[in-house]
Amino acid sequence: MHPDTALHSSDGPTSAAAKMQMLHQAQAQDESAVASAAAAATAAAAAAATAAAAAALTDDEPLTEPVAIKQAAPRKAQSLDLDSISMFPSLGSSSTRPAATTSTWGAGPSSRVKSAAGSKLGAVGDQRRSPAAALAAASATRVSSSGNVQERMQIPAVQTPAFGKATVGDIVKNVMTSSGARIESTTSQATGLTTFLISGKPEAVAKARLHLRSSFAKKETVKYPVPSSARAHLLGVKGRTLNSIQSKTGVTITVPPRDPQETTFEPANTNEDDLDVEEAMVLIDIEGDAESIKAAKEEVDNIVSKACRITYRYTTIPPTYYPFLSGSVVQSIQQETNTRINIPSHVSAHDDDEDEDAKDVAIVIQGDRKAIRKSLKLLDDKHQEIVLNTRTMTINIPKRQHRFLIGTKGVHIKEIHDTTGCTIEIPPVDSSSDSIIVRGPESKLIPALTLIMEKANSSQVETVDVAAAHKPVAGRSKTEHARRVTKYLSGRNKLRKIEQELEDVQIVVPRSEGQTSVTIEIVAKTRVQVEAARKRVLETVAALTPALFDVIQVEPLLHRHIVGRKGQNINRLRETYGVEVIVPDAHSDSHEIVLVYESANSSDLADSAKIRAALESVKQQVDKLASDYADFATKTLTVPARLHRNIIGPKGSTLIAIMGLEPTTSVRLGLPRDGTADAVKASGVPTLTEDSIVIKGPKEEVERVAKEILTLVEETQSQQVTNAYSASFDIPATASPHVIGKGGANINKLTEQFQVKFDLNDRAASDEKTKKKSSNETMEVTIQGVKKNVEAAKETILKMVEQIADATVAKLNIPVEHHSALIGAKGHYVRRLEEKYGVRIQFPKAGELEDEDKSKLNVVMVSGGKKGVQGAKEELLELLDYEKENNNTLEMVVEPKVLPHIVGRSGAKINEIQEASQTRIDIRRSSETDEKKEVRLVISGSKAGLKQALKAIQDIVEAQKSQVEEVVHIDNKYHKVLIGQGGSTLREIIAKAGGPSEMSAQASLVKFQNNNNAVLLRGDKTVVDKIKSEMLTMVAEQENWTTLTISIPAAQHRQVIGSQFSNVKEIENNHNVRIQFPNNKNKKEGAADTSAEAIAANDKVTIKGLRENCEKAKIDLEAKIRSSASRSFSIPKRYRQAVFGDGVWKIRNEFHVSVVLPRGEGGRGGGKRIDVDDENVTHGITDGLSWELHDLSGTNEEEEDAQYTVQLQGTEAACAAVEQHLTGLLNKARASTHVLKIRVPTTYHGLIIGSGGNNIKNIEAESGTSTKIARGEELISITGPKEGVEKAKQAIIRVVSTSDKRA
User: Fold this and answer.
1) Cβ-count burial of 110 within 10 angstroms (0-12 exposed, 13-18 middle, 19+ buried)?
2) Residue 502 pLDDT > 70, yes or no?
3) Strand, coil or helix: what is 375?
């Protein structure tokens, strides 16, 4: 062993060369801390020479003493040459292995040389390091690719145990055993430093380092002050937080017990006086080494900083300066003071907040007292700087344009400030002032003014004075009526339709009750849009006359009873009497309910007696609904306004505790919200003051609430601090985790709900850790705050404990194969059971169980109240029995080629089997090669269902086994004959052979090849043989067929052929022939060939078949010719559109008669145009729908004499029936003297038509008209007599109006 080095290792043998290299690498750094520059260079050379000699040894050679090297005395004036090879010789290379370039310690040779050189100036200082500093010295952590880390740790000689160096190895061995890390240690006799090399997993290395430090480092005890209010947070629940700090840092912390007289609670919101009060401190003892104590202090400070944060509300700075403080200014203050500052976004008093009291303009600061005081000073300094550097300018802008300066949620105010650095101050909405104050740097005021004017003039504004739209009525105020009109328009969105029809138009209905005038503002981009919208609004307002309105006064607390569940009461009144009931908003104090009579019929709106009767009836109904709650009472208390805040409590918590979570009363403190004389008068109570408290509701509940409020007031007046009340009680320790909740969720919720503070003290926390807790162990709960809130919180916790005491757990043995069925898709079934019985059901997860716990896979846990657990248990077992009966499984193997037939097209066949058998079929393919792979079908369901599904699949498999494939060679010229027209012949062949009727199956059964004579037959052998035989028979007959040609005039072809070839098919089927008519469809006008040859060709009809069959078919065709007839039918030309407007195809299909129209004239058009604006057209608008009425009764002699003649071709009886039909249409057309064109938005067309066309059919039947609705267009045309047309129009308008009311 080297004389200057002691080696301690407990991890097996290490090679001599590796040991030597490792020791000298550490020694090179250690000795640099105590030697001079020259001595360091000489020591490094000696170490290098020794390492070179060691490198030449093999791993099997023993470690020998190094050769002594004579040192030369350093020269006095010669500086150290770090690059000298003689002073710093390089290590020799080995032939057996390369020299290591990276040391085991984590630093390369170059870094060691630099460290030695750099220690010239710092060696003496480093030598004087304290033991604690030496203990903390460690190299950078190395992380290997496997995730292991390696760290180096040093301790000075003074820290080594005094009972001998041999003990170091024992300590290291014990630490390795307890931590799982690998440790090697060396001690330098020159410096006295002991170096530890620790490697392993990160957590093992950290644990080993902590144990080494606690074993070697010198212990000391320090007292550290912490705020008394942080004691509970430092301890944690059952001391868990304190134990965590001690285990993490290796120290022992002693926290003194709390003085019973000591107050440990802070108010949630701190005022200016509380901010200057210094909190009482307690001293805790921290025992450990210096580094551990330092780490423990950091952990304690982190907890204290979170626990002792208070909230301070600062209202000294005017809100007008908030925009200048926001952003970077407040961020820099937060960073400097370690606080959290929230500055409200200051929009203006002109914004749309309905509740002015809801606006909170205070700056909220969170942090400790010292940091908050510093933040306040910085905020005040910045505020004074802004005041000195800003100027103001006042401009007048019309009040109606103020909203454009604000924008939606103040976006324009923010844009002006971001662009110019200036802010604007806008007067409140109820102020008559037009003045705008611009504040900012003097150089930015002009650009800000320019941008303000641009925003103000960005839109056109017009107003409608609602009060001026109607004449004054005796006994009624025009302003009051105007306000009721606006309530009706806004409550029923009557102006929304105008906004939707006119683009880029915004109509604003006033909300403020305090204004003397009632005006509706109309905003748009252009003047044209504003004028159009204003006209529409005036029409809407003018129609709402005072005669249609009435009011009734009802206590606001009863409004919800008037409305009814989901509005059923007011809906019933609307449907019965046609009266809309407008109830004030739920947050309003108004007693006034507005009644508005509505009707789509203009005659009803003119009947004042009917309107008054409907309004009076509704008033009686509303009075009756209000009188049903006769137990209603009102009580007024007088309590000084300064105590109202104590009654309300933080965030309304105290008042909620008094009224209950589901209150049946209302409590109003101070004056009504709007503060108007009308509101005070309407409240139905004596004159109110700011000290008044009005309680309304059921009589008994009002008395109870009033009594509790007075009791609270007495307690408040007798106590100096209202939140000093506290209550302590015990709960079972076993219930504490449920009361606290996961991560403190339950206790935090109670704190927020009741605005109280909790202190939980485990009575057994002072017992020894090894002592087993008894089942009777309790936990003390202390609640502090307002007395009413404390008692409510206590009651809530005791109810929770009671529920926990009732809790039980049931274990059910349910086979794991049934778990998925009981859980349901995405847990649907198990969630339903949990919600139904209020329990928790836990199914085991295989991945979370160890191998020895696999037996627990069948155990299902049900926990909750005893009654709920029993109910859930019984239902689960019932479901299990059902699953055992119906959730059977059967597997069968099929060949892959059969699978497509089992599945069917798009899964149709397998779905059919599943639905018929009420089973589930899963397909599982084999992973083997194509030659060996198979398909397994897993069928799940009841036993009967399995049997049915199995039989259906086996039938398919058996059917596929009899499938054959055969090719028949038939000359290509006969393919067309075998297929027939539209495939009719082929279908007949397949049907005769017993083949499938589905076209898709027929297509796969017979396939004709296009390029050769082959016909592929694939299917059941019996069917294929029959098809083949039938085809060959038909081909043989075709070879003996002949062709017979007869002449039938082309004009009679249609009658002979019949509807959809019915006559021809009948003859072909009867005589087994094929009949071909020439393709002489209608040609373009002027292009017909009138030559004799062409006419003769168009008359030729060919018959193909056996000779005798062709002759019989010819006789039948000639009989059809003889039975046909042709007639002429004439009507006045002006009625051709009415008679033939729908085309002649209906006549052809219904009567089997062809209608030949005059050449060059179609069936459409003709008649008098009704789209020309002449003296016979009347225009009008009804309920917003425009219409035109055309009078068609006026005719002239020329129109009456002009005739329109058509030719009817068919049988005598059919032609006579058509003449009778056309005569009826002509008579109806003569009676239709008027046409009404009305434009209705397409969104209403569906309602007008009705389900299956029922509505439009009823309208036509009742009015005696015919109606046409253009697809995708607004135009609806109604034709008929004038009275019928008017009746149909009113019916359509009624449908549209009814739809608007429902919307």
Assistant:
1) exposed
2) yes
3) helix
